[in-house]
UniProtKB/TrEMBL annotation:
Membrane spanning stretches: none
One example of a Gene Ontology biological process annotation: endosomal transport
Domain WASH complex subunit 7 C-terminal: 1024-1205
Ranges for domain WASH complex subunit 4 N-terminal: 23-629
PROSITE patterns: UIM
Recorded superkingdom: Eukaryota
GO annotations of cellular component type: endosome; WASH complex
Domain WASH complex subunit 7 central intervals: 631-976
Organism: Bodo saltans (Flagellated protozoan)
Pfam family, one: WASH-7_mid
Region (Disordered): 1149-1172
Protein name as it appears in the record: WASH complex subunit 7
Length: 1221
C-alpha cells in the first residue's frame, strides 16, 4: 500500500509540474506577443540577422569525419561486392572531377583575369626618368618600357601559378583518361555474358555531367589564356631577360645550368598552356590501352553509350537554356563543345564512315549557339561557341553552315537587339515577384510542432524560388553585358539602370536569406529529414514491389533491389557531398537502365525529390554563387558612377543603396587572388578608394549641397519672412537618404546622415563664427534639419556676447583699412573713438581693451596672430603711398632745399629749425592744389601718417586685450606666484616644464618609494596624468605670457625694415624728417579746429588723435631718420617761438591796458580801444592753445619712442657684463 501511494503521489507531482511548465511557456509566449506589439523596433528580435552588421555567419553544409566514399557506403561490400565497386568507383571519380572543376574556376581563372591590373606603386617602379624629353615619341617609349617592366615582374610572380596550372592540366588528362577507359571497359562486348553484363545497361548521367563540367573548365581556362595578350607579352619579355642573363652571365650571380633548365621549363609551359594546346593535348592522348585490355576508339558499345549520353546532355541543356531552371547550362555548353571535340577525335574513323552523325551533332551544338551566341567566363573574357567550333572543327561546322563567322556575328547582333528589348520588361516582372517573395520570406516564422509540416513546405518552396530567381536574374544581367560587349554596342542609360536594379535584387535575395538564417539554421535539419523521409517512402514502395519478385528475379532486378536498399540507407545519414554523390550513383543503378523494372513516374518522383534535397543541402553555396556580382569590377569605371548618379536622381530607390554597396564587395576574393603583384591588398585598397571617391562625388557631395541649400531657402522664405528668396523646391525627397540606417562599406560602417551632419556642423559653425549675429538663424536651420531630414546638427557652443561686448575684433581686423581711416586713437587710455563725420548716428562707437578681451574670449587667442598679419599688410599698403608721396619732385625738391638751407644757417638759427620755414612749406604745398573737401596734399599726407599710427595702436590694443584675457582667466588660479605642480601630485617623478630636477626632491622620492613598497597605492590612470600635464602646460604658458607678453612693434619694424634696405630704391624716404615739422603744423591746426567744434552745438569735433604722433615716431624709426629729426630740435624751436610770441603779446596787452585807462579818463565813450584789446586777448588765447597742443604732441612723441627702443633681456645683459669683465 505504501508503494502504491508513493506511485500515486509521484504521478500527481509530475502532472502538477507539467501543468506548471505549460503555464510558464504560455505566459512567456504571451509576453513575447505583447513585446512585439508595443515595440516595433524589436519585432522579430532574435530571429532576424543583419547582413550589414553580423561579423559571423553560419554554415549549414553537413560534414562528417569519415569523408571517403567507401566509408560513406559502409557495409555494402558484404552483400554485393560488384555493386560496391561500382558505387564506390564512380562517386570517387565525380568527387575528384568536381574538385578539379572548382579549383579551376576558383583558383586559376580569377588570378589570370586580374593579371592586367596593377598597383600604383608597381607603376612607379623602375629607374628615374625625370631627365627624359617630353616629346610624344619619348613618352610612348617610356610607357612601353613601363608596360614591359610590369609584365616582366608580373609574370615572374605568376610562374608558380602557371606551374600549378600545368600540373592541374596533367591531373585533368589523367582523370579524363581514367573516366573514358573505365566507361570503355564497362561498355564493352567482352561483358556480354559475365557478371558485369547487367551494368552495361546502366547509365551514369552524374559521371557524364561531371566530365562535361571538367572539360568545360579546361575550355574556359584555355580561352582565358588565349585572350590574354598581357600574359603573352610578359612571357616574351621574361624570356628576353633570361636570354640576357645567360648571355652576360659574368654580370649576374646565377647558375647557368639552372637558368637553361628554367628556360626549357618556360618553353614547355608556353607550348602546353599558351599555344592553344591544353584541349588539343587532351584529345590527342592515347586512350586505347593494350596493357589494360581497353578498347576505346573501336568500341561500338561505348560509342553508342557516348553518343546517347552526349545527345541526352545536349537535349537537357538545350531545354534548360534561357529558362529559370538553367542552372549551370552555359558552363555545360562549353563542356559539350570540348566533349564533342574529344568525341570527334576518339571516334574519328566512325564519324568518317558516318558523316551524318557528325553533321547531326554539330547541328545540335550550333542550335545551342543560336540561343547563347556568347558565354561569359570571367573578367572581360567571352567564349563565342561558333568561332570556337570554326577554329577547332572547321570542316564539320562548314557542313552545317557555309560561313560560320558571319553567321556568328549575325546571331550576336540579333541576340543583342532581342536581349535589349526583353531585358527591362523581364526585370520589371522579376522586381514584382522578388518583392513578393522577400515579403513572404520575412513574414515566415518558426511555429510549434503541430505546424512544422506546413513550415517545412513553405520554407522549401521559398528557398527554391529564391535560388531560381537569383540564378535567372544573374544570368540575364551577365548575358546583357556580355552580348553588348561582343556586339561592340554601348549600353543605354535605361539598360544601365536595369543592371543596377538587377544587382540590387540579387543582394536583396541574399540579404533575405541571411536575415532568416536563425530560423533556417534551426529548421534546416527538419527540412532535410522531411525530404529524406519523403524520398524514403517513395523508394520503400519500390523496394516492397521488388521484394515480391526477388526470389525468381534476374541479376538486374537484384542489383536494383540492392541499389534501392543502399539509397534508403544513405538517406538515413547526414547529407554530405559524398553521401549525395553516392545516392545519385545508386539511384542511377536503380532507375537509369535499359531494363528498369520501375515505371517512369517512379523515377520522376524520386529524382524530383532528390533534386529538391540536393538544392536544400547546397542552398548556401547556390545562393552565394547566384548572387555573386564580381563582374562589376571589370565594368567599374563605366557602370558604378552611373549607378550612384542615377540612384541619387531617384531618391525613391534609396533603400536599395545598401544592396548596391554590398554588391560592390563581391569582387574582394577575386582581387585578393591576384598573384602577379607583391601586395594584392593594395589593389583592393585602390578599388575601395575608387568606390569611395565615386560614392562621395555622386551622392554625398551633391546631397550635402542640396540639403544645405534647401535649409537656407526654407529659412529665408519662412523663418526670415523673405518670400522673394523663395525658389521652387525640388521634387526629390532627400530625407530618404538621410534616414537610411547605417550599412557596411567594405571595412567600415557608414551612415549617410553622419556624413551630412559633419558637413553641416562645420559649415554652420564656421559661418556663424564669422557672423555671430546670425546665431538664431542657424538655430532655426538646425531645428528644420532635424524635422525634415532627421539630422542632428550639434550646437556651435559659440560664447554668447555680453552687454559691453562692443565691436568685434575679428570684423575690425577684416576691415582694418576702413577702421584706421574712420577712428581716432588715444594713447593713454588705449581707446579708439569713431569720427563723427563718418556716421549720421547720434552715438559713436568706441573700442576699448575690455572689448578686445571679450572678442579673444569669444574667438580664441588665434585672432591675435591674424591681427598682426592684417596690420602688416595694411602698413605695407600705407608705406607704398608714403614712398610715392615723398618721391614726388615737388615734395622732394622743397624738402631737399629746406634741409640744405637749415644746414647752411644752423649756427644762425642756433640749431633750431625755424617755424616760419615750415609754415612757408605749407603755403607752397597749398599752391599745388586743394581737394574738394578743402584739404591740401599735405593734409592728406598727415591723415595717412595718422592711419599708420592708428594701425599700430590697434595692434597694441589687441596685445593688451590678450593680456587682459589671460589675466581674467588667471583669476581661477589661487596664486600665480605659487602655482602647484599638478602632475607631480599624481606622478612624483614628473618634472615641470622649464625646470630641472632638484636635489631637494630626492628625499621626497625616496619616501614615496618606501611607501609604495610598504603598501599598495591607487595609481592614477594614464589619462589623469596626461590631463594634469596639459593643465600644467597651460598654466605655465599663461604665467609666461603675463610676465613677458609679445613685442609686436619690434617684430613689425624688423619685418618691414628688411624690405627697405636698398638705399638707391628707398633713399628718398630719408627726407621724411624734414616734412615732419610741416605736418606737425597741419596736425596742430587740425586739432585746434576740431576741439573748437566740441564746444559748439553740433559737437562734431575730435578730442584726440594720438595716432599721428605714433605714426610719425614709427616712420622716423623705420626710415632711420630719428636722429635727423632730433637734430632739428623742432619742439624746442616751437616752444621758443610761442614763448617769445606770448611774452610780446603779454607786454603789448599790458601796455594797451595802461593806455586804455588813460584814454577812458579823457574820452569814456571810445569803444575802438576795447575791441583792440579783445582781439589781442583772443590772439593770445589761440597762441597759448596752440602751444599746449605742441606740448601735448611732444609728450606723445616722447611716449611713443619707448615702443621702438628694444629692451635687452636680463640674460643678455648678464652676458654683456661678463664679457666686459
Amino acid at each position: 500500500m505504501l508503494s502504491l501511494d508513493a506511485n500515486i503521489g509521484k504521478e500527481e507531482k509530475e502532472i502538477f509540474f507539467e501543468k506548471l511548465r505549460g503555464f510558464v511557456v504560455s505566459h512567456e509566449n504571451s509576453l513575447k506577443d505583447v513585446l512585439q506589439t508595443f515595440d516595433t523596433n524589436r519585432l522579430g528580435e532574435g530571429t532576424v540577422w543583419d547582413a550589414m552588421k553580423d561579423t559571423v555567419s553560419i554554415d549549414l553544409q553537413s560534414t562528417q569525419n569519415q569523408t571517403t566514399v567507401a566509408d560513406t557506403l559502409g557495409r555494402t561490400k558484404l552483400h554485393n561486392g560488384l555493386f560496391f565497386r561500382m558505387a564506390m568507383l564512380f562517386p570517387s571519380l565525380v568527387l575528384e572531377m568536381k574538385s578539379l572543376t572548382e579549383e579551376c574556376y576558383d583558383l586559376f581563372i580569377p588570378p589570370l583575369a586580374m593579371f592586367s591590373e596593377y598597383n600604383a606603386d608597381d607603376e612607379d617602379d623602375g629607374d628615374d626618368c625625370s631627365d627624359a624629353k617630353s616629346n610624344a615619341d619619348t613618352a610612348a617609349a617610356l610607357a612601353a618600357q613601363k608596360s614591359d617592366e610590369r609584365a616582366q615582374k608580373g609574370l615572374g610572380r605568376l610562374m608558380t601559378l602557371l606551374s600549378d596550372i600545368w600540373h592541374w592540366v596533367d591531373r585533368v588528362k589523367t582523370m579524363v583518361t581514367t573516366v573514358i577507359r573505365n566507361f570503355a571497359a564497362l561498355y564493352s562486348r567482352a561483358h556480354a555474358k559475365d557478371n558485369y553484363q547487367p551494368y552495361t545497361k546502366v547509365h551514369f548521367p552524374l559521371v557524364w555531367h561531371a566530365l562535361v563540367d571538367l572539360i568545360g573548365a579546361l575550355v574556359a581556362l584555355e580561352e582565358v589564356v588565349m585572350e590574354h595578350e598581357t600574359l603573352r607579352q610578359g612571357l616574351r619579355v621574361y624570356r628576353k631577360m633570361l636570354q640576357q642573363i645567360i648571355r652576360h652571365k659574368d654580370k649576374f650571380e646565377a647558375d647557368v645550368v639552372i637558368l637553361e633548365q628554367f628556360g626549357k621549363l618556360m618553353n614547355k609551359v608556353e607550348a602546353d598552356l599558351l599555344d592553344d594546346g591544353m584541349l588539343e593535348r587532351l584529345v590527342s592522348l592515347q586512350y586505347d590501352s593494350a596493357e589494360l585490355e581497353v578498347n576505346v576508339s573501336y568500341n561500338p558499345v561505348f560509342y553508342e553509350e557516348f553518343s546517347r549520353m552526349f545527345s541526352g546532355i545536349i537535349l537537357t541543356v538545350g531545354e534548360s537554356l534561357c529558362t529559370p531552371r538553367e542552372g549551370e547550362g552555359r558552363r555545360k555548353f562549353m563542356g559539350l563543345l570540348g566533349l564533342h571535340y574529344l568525341q570527334f577525335t576518339i571516334f574519328k574513323e566512325k564519324f568518317r564512315n558516318d558523316p551524318s552523325a557528325q553533321r547531326k551533332v554539330s547541328s545540335d551544338l550550333f542550335e545551342l549557339h543560336r540561343k547563347v551566341p556568347v558565354i561569359y567566363i570571367n573578367g572581360d573574357v567571352l567564349l563565342k561557341p561558333a568561332q570556337w567550333m570554326a577554329r577547332r572543327m572547321p570542316a564539320a561546322l562548314k557542313a552545317v553552315v557555309k560561313d560560320p563567322v558571319k553567321e556568328a556575328m549575325i546571331s550576336i547582333k540579333t541576340e543583342c537587339v532581342r536581349t535589349a528589348a526583353d531585358f527591362l520588361p523581364r526585370l520589371n516582372f522579376f522586381s514584382t515577384i522578388v518583392t513578393i517573395w522577400a515579403a513572404q520570406m520575412q513574414s515566415t516564422y518558426a511555429t510549434d510542432r503541430v505546424h512544422s509540416k506546413a513550415l517545412v513546405t513553405t520554407l522549401t518552396q521559398l528557398m527554391q524560388r529564391g535560388i531560381f530567381f537569383a540564378q535567372d536574374i544573374s544570368r540575364m544581367t551577365k548575358h546583357m553585358i556580355a552580348i553588348h560587349q561582343a556586339a561592340d554596342m554601348a549600353l543605354t542609360v535605361p539598360l544601365v539602370d536595369g543592371i543596377a536594379q538587377a544587382v540590387e535584387m540579387l543582394h536583396m535575395i541574399r540579404s533575405a536569406f541571411h536575415n532568416k538564417y536563425s530560423m533556417l539554421g534551426a529548421s534546416f535539419h527538419l527540412i532535410v529529414q522531411s525530404h529524406s523521409f519523403t524520398m524514403q517512402k517513395q523508394l520503400h514502395n519500390c523496394y516492397q514491389r521488388l521484394n515480391d519478385t526477388l526470389q525468381n528475379a534476374s541479376e538486374a532486378v537484384t542489383d536494383q533491389h540492392s541499389a534501392i536498399g543502399q539509397a534508403m540507407a544513405l538517406l538515413n545519414k547526414g547529407q554530405t557531398l559524398q553521401n549525395l554523390l553516392c545516392l545519385d550513383v545508386v539511384l542511377s543503378v536503380a532507375f537509369q537502365r535499359d531494363d528498369c523494372y520501375f515505371q517512369a513516374k517512379d523515377y520522376e518522383d524520386a529524382m524530383n525529390t532528390f533534386g529538391t534535397l540536393t538544392r536544400i543541402c547546397n542552398f548556401q553555396k547556390l545562393v552565394r554563387a547566384a548572387t555573386d556580382c564580381d563582374f562589376l569590377y571589370w565594368q567599374r569605371e563605366g557602370l558604378i558612377p552611373i549607378f550612384f548618379r542615377r540612384l541619387y536622381a531617384n531618391p525613391g530607390r534609396s533603400e536599395y543603396l545598401p544592396y548596391l554597396i554590398s554588391a560592390l564587395h563581391d569582387c574582394r576574393p577575386t582581387i585578393l587572388s591576384s598573384r602577379h603583384v607583391a601586395t594584392p591588398t593594395q589593389l583592393l585598397d585602390n578599388y575601395i578608394k575608387f568606390v569611395r571617391d565615386t560614392f562621395t562625388d555622386e551622392i554625398i557631395r551633391p546631397l550635402r549641397t542640396d540639403v544645405e541649400n534647401d535649409l537656407r531657402l526654407y529659412t529665408h522664405a519662412v523663418v526670415l519672412g523673405q518670400p522673394f528668396r523663395k525658389l521652387e523646391r525640388s521634387s526629390k525627397d532627400l530625407s530618404r537618404f538621410t534616414r537610411l540606417p547605417s550599412f557596411r562599406f567594405f571595412n567600415e560602417s557608414i551612415r549617410i546622415a553622419d556624413l551630412v551632419e559633419d558637413y553641416l556642423d562645420a559649415q554652420f559653425y564656421n559661418l556663424n563664427a564669422l557672423m555671430t549675429n546670425d546665431w538664431k538663424t542657424y538655430e532655426e536651420m538646425r531645428n528644420i534639419a532635424l524635422e525634415r531630414y532627421g539630422l542632428r546638427v550639434v550646437e556651435g557652443f559659440l560664447p554668447g556676447s555680453i552687454v559691453d561686448q562692443g565691436l568685434d575684433v575679428l570684423v575690425i581686423t577684416e576691415n582694418i583699412q576702413f577702421f584706421v581711416a574712420n577712428y581716432t586713437y588715444n594713447l593713454n587710455e588705449q581707446l579708439f573713438v569713431q569720427r563723427p563725420s563718418v556716421t549720421d548716428a547720434k552715438n559713436l562707437h568706441t573700442l576699448h581693451i575690455r572689448h578686445v578681451a571679450n572678442s579673444i574670449r569669444t574667438h580664441g587667442s588665434g585672432i591675435m596672430n591674424t591681427t598682426v598679419n592684417y596690420v602688416y599688410k595694411c602698413l605695407l599698403k600705407k608705406l607704398a603711398i608714403v614712398s610715392q608721396f615723398l618721391y614726388d619732385d615737388h615734395v622732394k625738391s622743397r624738402l631737399m632745399k629746406d634741409a640744405k638751407h637749415f644746414n647752411a644757417h644752423k649756427d644762425t638759427c642756433e640749431g633750431l629749425y625755424p617755424l616760419q620755414r615750415a609754415e612757408k612749406y605749407n603755403t607752397e604745398m597749398r599752391k599745388l592744389g586743394v581737394a574738394e573737401d578743402g584739404r591740401t596734399f599735405l593734409d592728406q599726407f598727415r591723415q595717412l601718417v595718422s592711419e599708420v599710427g592708428n594701425a599700430l595702436g590697434y595692434m597694441r590694443m589687441v596685445r593688451s586685450g590678450g593680456l587682459r584675457a589671460i589675466a581674467d582667466a588667471a583669476v581661477f588660479i589661487p596664486a600665480m606666484d605659487a602655482i602647484p605642480h599638478l602632475e607631480k601630485k599624481v606622478n612624483p617623478k614628473a618634472v615641470r616644464e622649464g625646470e630641472e630636477f632638484k636635489d631637494d626632491d630626492e628625499d621626497l622620492l625616496l619616501a614615496v618609494e618606501e611607501e609604495e613598497e610598504e603598501e599598495e597605492e591607487i595609481k592614477a590612470s594614464e589619462a589623469t596624468v596626461h590631463s594634469c600635464r596639459v593643465v600644467d602646460k597651460v598654466i605655465h604658458h599663461m604665467n609666461k605670457k603675463l610676465a613677458q607678453g609679445s613685442d609686436y612693434f619690434y617684430m613689425l619694424q624688423e619685418a618691414i625694415a628688411k624690405k627697405l634696405k636698398d638705399p638707391e630704391k628707398y633713399g628718398h624716404l630719408k627726407h621724411f624728417a624734414m616734412i615732419v615739422p610741416s605736418i606737425c603744423i597741419s596736425h596742430v591746426e587740425y586739432m585746434v579746429r576740431q576741439k573748437e567744434q566740441l564746444v559748439k552745438k553740433n559737437k562734431d569735433g575730435l578730442f584726440t588723435d594720438d595716432g599721428f604722433g605714433l605714426g610719425c615716431v614709427f616712420l622716423l624709426c623705420l626710415f632711420g631718420v630719428l636722429d635727423n629729426f632730433e637734430s632739428l630740435h623742432w619742439f624746442e624751436s616751437v616752444q621758443k617761438h610761442y614763448s617769445t610770441k606770448l611774452q610780446e603779446m603779454s607786454a603789448s596787452m599790458a601796455a594797451n591796458k595802461e593806455k586804455e585807462k588813460k584814454n577812458k579818463k579823457k574820452s569814456p565813450n571810445d569803444d575802438n580801444e576795447d575791441d583792440d584789446i579783445k582781439t589781442m586777448q583772443l590772439t593770445f588765447a589761440m597762441a597759448e592753445y596752440a602751444l599746449k597742443e605742441y606740448q601735448g604732441l611732444e609728450r606723445c612723441f616722447t611716449s611713443c619712442l619707448v615702443f621702438f627702443q628694444r629692451r635687452i633681456p636680463e640674460e643678455e645683459e648678464e652676458e654683456e657684463e661678463e664679457e666686459e669683465d
